[in-house]
Amino acid sequence: MNATRRSFLKTSGALIVGFGSGGLIVTRAQGPLQGSPAMNQLDSWIAIATDGSITAFSGKEELGQGISTAQQQLVAEELSVPFNRVKLIYCDTAITPDQAHTSGSQSHPTNFNQGNLAQAGATARDALFRMASQKLGVPVDQLTASDGVISSGSKRVTYGQLIEGKKFNLALDSKAKRKSPSQWTVLGKPIARPDMAELVTGKFEFVHNVRLQGMLHGRVVRPPSVGATVASVDESSVEGMPGLVKVVVKKNFVGVVAEKPWQAMQAAAKLKITWNPGPALPDQATFYESLRKQPARDTRMVDSGDVEAKLAAGNVLKATYLHPYQMHGSMGSSCAVADVNGERATIYSATQAVWYQKNTSAMILGLKPENIRVIFRRGSGCYGCNGADTVTYDAAVLSQAVGKPVRVQLSRKDEMAFENYGNAFVIDQRASLDSNGNITAWDHESWSPGLGGRPGTNTPGNIITGSLLGFQPAAFAPRSPAPAPGAFNNNSNGVPSYLAQGTGIVPSGRVITHAVESRFWTGPLRSPARLQNTFAHESFMDELAAKAKADPIEFRLRHLRDARLKEVLSAAAKTANWDPRPSPKLGNRKTGVATGRGAASVLYEGDNGYTALVAEIEVNQDTGKIVVKRLVASSDVGPISNPDGLRNQVEGGALQGLSRALGEEVTWDTEKITSVDWRTYHSLPLGFEVPKIDAVLINRTEGEVMGAGETSITLVAAAIGNAIFDATGARIRQVPFTAERVKAALAARV
Amino acid sequence: MKSSPTRSKLVDDMAINLKVNGRSHTLDLDPATPLLYALSEDLQLNGPKFGCGLGQCGACTVIVKGQAVRSCVTTLKSVEGSEVTTLEGIGTPEKPHPIQQAFIEERAAQCGFCLNGVIMTAKAFLDKNPKASEAEIQQAMSGVLCRCFTNVRMLRAMQKYGKAVAR
Question: With the CA atoms of B19, B25, B29 and B33 taken in that order, what torsion angle do they form, in degrees rounded to the nearest 10?
């Protein structure tokens, strides 16, 4: 396939189908590459062929979250054609609009409200109606569109006849009116994902299955300990090994290239490298406490100025919550294929940001960004910044070194030992109650270590491969004390829902965060910081409710102002048949199995998805084992594009949150990460005592669309911790809730 | 059974004979090579996948003699002469196997990377134990991962298939 969008479009239908079925044949890039098409031009988003088939181009990719199905529905809806009439192509730097990342629950708000793909759909529809009006001699308001045909009585014209193989040549029209959700016939329906048949039969091509002509296989050798550097590499140690093509050493980056993956693995294992060890790692046993003593970058998110005075005047409760580093822990270790051919490169990557990958790969390779094409291919579910970006650099560097296409897939250990973990957190909470049991002030202070993150446009040193190649991570700049708060923004959910600045009514509050340096790479992991902060807020809210001897849901409702947040919480309680009473549950015995229920709610990111969760659990007080019997997850994310897709996200998020709450924790010794496989990093498997899940979806027929990928997961640890308290009277404040920690919390009961 | 040598090179004493999805292949590979690499590289199959290389996640599962086998830790030598069935071997998008059909109907996927291991492990188990209870199915799937946590739908698809086999 030629690299340019124009020739791609010229060849139309057949190629597009080939793209979708994964049978893409690739030749080396020839001629100049074209950059991403202009965001404000309709032709960048939608093309209609003479046969009436519609191709939509998007910069938001399918990671398994179902967004491609919804985007196809959106375009079909606005253009009044059946779902299958639309083909969707996304995230190829040569042919699709540059929409930066696919991340942060932003795809829905970005492409389904007024701008971008939604606006393109509406603009195209308006344009087709205008063309039809002219062609048929009928006013626009007397025309209707159905199945790709615009008609008025017996007069009719197809989209193909109107377009006649040409382009629209129009700018996106901000006044073009979208169809109202009440008119939807395609969008809003539980249309099945089109990729299922290929997925279940092994026909689907993941990035792991990209095979280029003459492709070789690379294997990287990561440092044996955190911060280790290369002293020397003895290439003679692998001389003459079967299939070995080259040993590649660049600063602290070491890799081998061979004809076959198994050969590359064996050569990498045998290659003799002398490493200078890195500085010793902090003791994990005292790690959380050590964070408080490090130089920090302080931020004040809110500060009413009177918190200390209010706390002094009230009945104060204090608690500290601990959350570990956790992994994305992708099921398939990350993989990429790069073909660096002189001054040009074509790269197949599961990155969440093909455009940023293009820029930073250019830095890594010393090439011009315009000579690099990055094409997204689905990887194993990533849930944020997993190894997809770093392995893309690995493949690019090795391909450049041998001048041939190279595929690299990381080992399980390399995936887990060097990915950008979700941040650890220490969170101190203090709040005061008045004599009526109402909250008068809330003080939140957190410490969280960070290093690197997404590479963004120009920081390849934010991930391991870039760092090994000599690039620096984003600089850490301590700052204390924190400056006065800026405009209110609760993007990280650092501010508790119950403060008046956010969704609540409590007038006095202060939120101070301390970012400190991490020895391990960190980066966004599904619901980054939002999950950790919400665990602390929603657990502490339960502690306050218990202190006030109030029902946990009633107590929340009385401190909330936002009507939709109240509604979503009430909806979950209703479906769960919530029995209003204070926690802990009276009459539970202190031994054996005890049952309990807990709740939590939040407006995700302060403006991007209302959600609530009720967990019903059993605690075996003799073994410390938690069994979650039922999760009721409610969601209000505006007009629902695809209820089945939303349900899938809510269910998956709830169970992923369960796994993270009960077992997942990154561990290390004095020199290296020790959670490096599925025996040492404790994910729940497919087969465990899976709870019944009720997804309660509140649909809206007007208003803005919000994100839905990170709502339910944000609440799980808090809801389970609250349910443990309800069942046993023991409060557990450290994730994960391992049997040992549950037993320790039970033993500490008064 | 058709023979399809994948290498024109003269067969030497390193040659391994492999039967996959009803076809016979002669591969010039070290007999100690894990089966997974022969399937995904030499035979270019997309079904079996590298997830961990340690036999811990199930992504590489194939069926040999009715048993679910982790191809990432199974040498070529140990399956020489045996019939190996991969995800591709049980059905196609046009004509999916009933267990594949059950997953399609239940929309049981997110990223889909784990599906090979999930479906092949479940098939091997349910073909022998079609009347397995929910708890028994969960037990049988306790060594398989889905990190998107599509458990609810996948377990529903398995029960659906179990019922169909039992009928």
Answer: -20
